[in-house]
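thread: overnight batch results

M.L. [08:02]
morning all. the overnight job finished for the chain we discussed friday. pasting input first so we're all looking at the same thing
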Amino acid sequence: MRPADALRTAEQALPPPTRTLRLDGPSVLAKRQEILTYFHQTFDLYERLFDCIADERGYFTKAIPLRHPLIFYFGHTAAFFVNKLLADGQIGERIDPVIEAQVAIGVDEMSWDDLDERNYDWPTVAALRAYRARVRELVSRHILSMPLSLPITWESPAWVILMGIEHERIHLETSSVLIRQLPLDWVQDQPHWPVCPTARTDRATVPANRLVPVAGGELVLGKRDATYGWDNEYGTQRVSLAPFEASAMLVSNAEYLEFVAAGGYADDRWWSEEGRGWRSFARAAAPTFWVGDPDRPEGLKLRLMTREVPMPWDWPVEVNALEAAAFCRWKADVTGRPVQLPGEAEWVALRRQVPGDQPDWETTPGNINLAHWASACPVDLFPQGDGLFDIVGNVWQWTSTPISGYAGFAVHPRYDDFSTPTFDGKHDLIKGGSFISTGNEALASSRYAFRRHFFQHAGLRYVVSSYKEPALENPYETDEQVCQYLHFHYGAEHFGVPNFPRALAEIALAHCPNGGRALDIGCAVGRASLELARGFEHVDGVDFSARFIDAALQLIAQDSYRYTLPVEGELVDYHEVRLAPLGLGADQAARVQFSQGDALNLKPKYTGYDLVLAANLIDRLREPARFLADIGNRIKPGGVLVLTSPYTWLETFTPRANWLGGVRQNGESVTTYRALQLALAADFEEIAAPQDVPFVIRETARKHQHTLAQLTVWRRRG
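M.L. [08:03]
and the structure it wrote out:
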């Protein structure tokens, strides 16, 4: 089929593409309807994707060991709306607490061989379809009634709705990759997901790639348009970029075959240490989606989402970042020129040649935003810019840039773990979008990054350039709250006040001399969990903040952690903590399992404990009475509950109606301690007199918080 005919066929097969929304506009009423329509389009599109699963085993069997099975993702995007709206105080109750706990937290595998062998009691497909219907109804009603003013900002109630919509569009793409990795007889074609009908199956007819000169200049990176963006897109980075050359087209399957045929997968010279490890583990000899013997290319096929097709040699190759970088090293050796993956700034220089952006496109300029197909297409089908093709669309393009925040980066408080866990030098940016990239993903400002062994609908364009990204080795943690808690847990003591987490662990161990299993709920960055591991065989450290958990895991992994602390104004000083001088090390770390979790929605596996420590937690919960009612079920008869709190009740965290104490009832004052006695009386006996335990938190060099937390100790009745 000729390219022009293929384009006309695609336009007839697909519905009009949906586009992300502008945050401004003249009419609140019209914007409210736009949001509602965008929500319904997104919800419908996502559910249509799962129609491609023909066998229920496809929902419950992991497509790859490093990810949850697809049943998780089917429910996850709906539960995200409920969890975020509840956390933002926009709704008052859950739809289904069990489902919302089961599908709340996804997986970011730590390495290519980090196999997740845990078992989960997943809901049925029917249960999740019914749940999604209830979420659709809830969110639709909320969109029609929520406060709305224009423009929509980070603080707007509507921002959380847009966050949920764009989050589901991310998972539309990542779930399609997992479907692509299911057994072929578990999936089925669907008319809504057409495959590009044009391809060159004769390698001799594939056009040769060539280099195109690209002007450099001064670039300013950072989002400035009036559309929804993730927090890592905001801020500013200025780059002075020298002229360079870029391949006119994405690397095709035919061009990549040259690397494979030259023994590229067996030659250690082209692979980084990380790449050699992945290649050995995966036993890779060719791209993952190639089916057949690469030594007999005439018989090769390409695995698409729901079918295999004879190898389309003129479509872009799809590889991970390790393979893409190995190809570039080989290409550099063959050509004698500095061939490499482009940096983010170099892709931005290319992107300047594509006029406009997704919300305002009259005609979609490439194979993106589901405007044409649900597959890749020939690399010479969509000319863009001066002698270039596919600057946007077809497949994502790996860069050499590890993601980090621009100057001025700030965490969005409603999704505090979206970006910062990836600022570790191990997640590389992909740019340009793919055929199935929609919404925010299809914007010029989008910034998504994945671990280098990760598979996405991603390939590569190479550049001839000497540009190098600034090194991110041993970065200092700058997130203010994480730094403050690292210092509180592991840093110097102030004004003669003993270290608080260590003091709590010593008290807890004195009441549980026989050890066993312990839960440190609200563990923050983990000092008390590690101290408890001196006397317990197993400790679960659980905190709601993924940033805290990530810091604890990194500290254990490298035995040290660097961070900054404010001195005054914008001045900071630099600190490093190490576990060894604290008498903490591998013995304690081996007994601790750190996890992200919600104290009000703990998973069933958190049970059977000899000790539960809840330090300074209850006055930061939305429903502290609910926590107290549940926690006894997780402690063995005879087990111990240790609570501490300064009883600082604030409506920021806990609605006044839910305060345990610090209130008057029937004209009488009720203290939190008395409320605890009443709440725990049925299941616990108090086994020690309450005591005040002091702690100091450093804010700046000359400002510290000095606080007294009341500690109470309770034993569960047999």
